[in-house]
Amino acid sequence: MEKRPIGIFDSGVGGLTVFRAIRKQFPHEDIVYFGDTARVPYGPKSQNTVIEYSIQNARFLLQQGAKIIVIACNTSASIALQTLSKILPVPVIGVIEPGAISAVSATKNGKIGVIGTDGTIQSQAYPQAIAKLSATTQTFSQACPLFVSLAEEGWENHAVSKMVAEEYLQEILENDIDTLVLGCTHYPILKDTISQVAGENVKLVDSAEAIALQLKSIIPEPVKTGSGKDNFYVSDNEDKFAQIASKILQQEITPLTKVKLGESWYI
């Protein structure tokens, strides 16, 4: 493929966990990232709204020359992937299938837990994807909507985050799961806290790492020379985004551009 960027979008900072994994796998590729911080979170929104936002986000990335679109948002991937795949002129991949494959590979007792936003859990995307891979595997799901807000606030190690995790995970852990899918790209930001609550016998599956590996099969001839350039865009709160993003990526986020609502790519 020609020297065009990999495009990634998410509702906020969570997709930076996907960006981080892709950047590690593809050090020479250009990457353009869009975080729709003005409209985060996507989880509680209707399916039609999520699809509309996802189309707008993808069109913006296409305007930046993206050769492939990575939906780094489980809510968008579970609801809008099929629509985007039909209407966009470039390949589109989401985080659901790679996460399901990793979970099935990781489980020993065939009991997998899935946590995600309301939208992701209601879509049943993960249980369906896991069932296609293993008909005997049991899946237990739990919506954890507050995790997104905690991650966006940068409260990854806050006492409040641990209290919320204990409340959310109590019931799902009673099912003797040995694998827990972090079914939202914001959740790896809270990985240490979630791991403390889940216990050492539960393996956490980070779909960000899985999708980066899948991308290798879609980009068979990646750029192999030079340093890849990064461009970051948000729809609001760029200072807050930069602050949290620098913690996630351990680097300064630059260039970072705010895209105003109402510009041409917003229908």
In short:
This protein has helices at 16-25, 47-63, 74-87, 96-106, 118-123, 125-133, 146-153, 159-173, 191-198, 207-218, 238-249; strands at residues 6-10, 31-35, 68-71, 92-94, 111-116, 138-143, 179-183, 203-206, 230-234, 256-258. The chain has 267 residues and is an alpha/beta fold. It folds into two domains: 6-94 and 210-258, Rossmann fold (3-Layer(aba) Sandwich), CATH 3.40.50; 96-207, Rossmann fold (3-Layer(aba) Sandwich), CATH 3.40.50.1860.
Structural descriptors:
267 residues, alpha/beta, Rossmann fold, 6-stranded parallel β-sheet, 4-stranded parallel β-sheet, 17% strand
Account of the protein in words:
The chain has helices at residues 16-25, 47-63, 74-87, 96-106, 118-123, 125-133, 146-153, 159-173, 191-198, 207-218, 238-249, and strands spanning 6-10, 31-35, 68-71, 92-94, 111-116, 138-143, 179-183, 203-206, 230-234, 256-258. The longest helix has 17 residues, at 47-63. The protein has eleven helices and ten strands. The radius of gyration is 17 Å and the shape is globular. Strands 4-3-1-2-9-10 form a six-stranded parallel beta sheet, with helices on both faces. Strands 6-5-7-8 form a four-stranded parallel beta sheet, sandwiched between helices. It starts with 5 loop residues before the first strand and ends in a 9-residue tail after the last strand. It folds into two domains: 6-94 and 210-258, Rossmann fold (3-Layer(aba) Sandwich), CATH 3.40.50; 96-207, Rossmann fold (3-Layer(aba) Sandwich), CATH 3.40.50.1860. By secondary structure, the protein is of the alpha/beta class. The model is unreliable at 263-267 (pLDDT under 50). Helix content is 46%, strand content 17%.
